[in-house]
């Protein structure tokens, strides 16, 4: 027997109220997220900046494109999460080398010194100049301070303790490379902000003076003192929200001084053009190449350890510094896997590798011939045979 009409009506009204409350809570939560993320998301290029982007040889059909398209396995991206490593983040504190500005009072004896601050943030002292790459001092790689991948340790050197920086170089606008909280704190620096086409719109929106922003296309360059900074091709993508994918350019950089040359890859998959970069801008005393945060379902986005060693050789590098690992959990492999595999591949290829602790400075020309210091723990990781990363469209 069905319930009396008044009871059925009361139940429908109760369900309706629950649905309306749920909808209101969902909309309210979405509004809070939107408000908090609005500024960190950044701003799209307009006017003369946009017209310059459209004139780029890399601009096609309303967005930037790679000469070799990015291949993705959509189903693999879903299924890989079920086989994620149990060692995706450190179980104990990482032995960070902390410091302050005084440690930089003495210039490098060789003229080239690099301090790895974790992930892709590096302080490069080259021929009397200081360059800071992809500075990340914020807590997460996301537009929100309470959601998204969280850093594993505080910045080894506080922003206020950095020496005077001649140039801040941005490789692309993904959150683990372009950090709005950091830019907000350094926007008043008397320095030059160098970025690929379109990224300057974000910087200007966040308060960096237009007069201090230099935007470059691939193969273009600018000069800071006697240091040439050349924007080099990379194989990657860009975007800070759903509707701005590939609306800005991505790049690597060559720092060419009177006596030294250094290459910074940014994020990239392997691509044939690395040989051209090496021929035109090398040989390099040091290559700083991303080696972590990779997956078989997206092999063209991130190069992986073995291909990073191959890229170092294509670039005509002398010493290789693997970066883009050891600070955030951005993939499904173990956190030590990138450096372990890089060392194996480098030994087989006869490549010299530097593996400093986060915050540790080193001079490539002063590296000893012995093995690197293994400051990370021994935990299980997959070899190249077990989990190969092979970019497409590369012979």
TrEMBL record:
Question: Metallo-beta-lactamase domain: which residues?
Answer: 129-325
Q: Does the keyword Hydrolase apply?
A: yes
Keyword list (alphabetical) reads: Hydrolase
Q: State the organism named in the record.
A: Enhygromyxa salina
Q: Which residues form a coiled coil?
A: none
Instruction: Tell me which Gene3D superfamilies the record gives.
Output: Ribonuclease Z/Hydroxyacylglutathione hydrolase-like
Q: Can you supply one Gene Ontology CC term for this chain's record?
A: cytoplasm
What terms describe the molecular function in GO for this protein? hydrolase activity
Q: What is this protein called?
A: Metal-dependent hydrolase
């Amino acid at each position: 027997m069905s319930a009396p009409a008044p009871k059925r009506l009361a139940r429908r009204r109760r369900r309706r109220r629950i649905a309306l409350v749920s909808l209101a809570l969902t909309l309210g939560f979405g509004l809070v997220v939107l408000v908090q993320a609005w500024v960190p998301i950044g701003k799209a290029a307009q006017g003369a900046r946009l017209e310059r982007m459209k004139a780029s040889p890399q601009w096609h059909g309303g967005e930037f494109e790679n000469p070799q398209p990015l291949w993705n396995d959509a189903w693999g991206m879903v299924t890989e999460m079920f086989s994620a490593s149990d060692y995706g983040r450190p179980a104990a504190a990482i032995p960070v080398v902390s410091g302050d500005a005084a440690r930089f009072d003495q210039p490098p004896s060789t003229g080239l010194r690099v301090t790895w601050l974790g992930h892709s943030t590096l302080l490069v002292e080259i021929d009397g100049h200081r360059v800071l790459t992809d500075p990340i001092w914020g807590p997460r790689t996301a537009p929100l301070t309470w959601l998204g991948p969280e850093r594993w340790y505080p910045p080894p050197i506080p922003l206020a303790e950095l020496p005077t920086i001649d140039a801040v170089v941005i490789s692309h606008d993904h959150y683990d490379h372009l950090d709005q909280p950091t830019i907000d704190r350094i926007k008043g620096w008397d320095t030059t902000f160098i970025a690929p086409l379109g990224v300057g719109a974000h910087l200007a929106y966040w308060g960096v003076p237009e007069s201090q922003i230099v935007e470059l296309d691939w193969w273009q360059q600018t000069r800071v003192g006697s240091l040439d900074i050349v924007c080099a091709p990379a194989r990657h993508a860009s975007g800070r929200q759903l509707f701005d994918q590939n609306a800005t350019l991505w790049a690597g950089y060559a720092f060419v001084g009177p006596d030294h040359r250094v290459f910074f890859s940014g994020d990239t998959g392997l691509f044939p053009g690395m040989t051209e970069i090496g021929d035109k801008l090398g040989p390099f005393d040091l290559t700083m190449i991303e080696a972590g945060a990779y997956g078989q379902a997206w092999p063209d986005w991130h190069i992986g350890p073995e291909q990073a060693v191959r890229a170092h050789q294509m670039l005509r590098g002398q010493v290789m510094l693997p970066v883009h690992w050891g600070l955030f959990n951005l993939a499904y492999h173990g956190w030590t896997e990138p450096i372990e595999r890089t060392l194996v591949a480098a030994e087989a290829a006869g490549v010299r590798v530097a593996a400093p602790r986060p915050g540790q400075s080193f001079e490539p020309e002063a590296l000893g011939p012995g093995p690197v210091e293994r400051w990370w723990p021994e935990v299980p990781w997959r070899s190249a045979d077990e989990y190969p990363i092979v970019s497409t469209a590369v012979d």
